[in-house]
Amino acid sequence: MRNILFLCTGNSARSIMAESYMNHAGAGAWRAYSAGSKPAGTPNPFALKTLTAHSIAVGADDTAPRSKSWDEFAGDDAPIMDVVVTVCDNAASETCPVWPTQGARPPKTMHWGFPDPAAAEGSDEDKRAAFETVFADIRQSIDAFLENEK
Question: Annotated catalytic sites, by residue?
Answer without folding.
Answer: 8, 88, 96
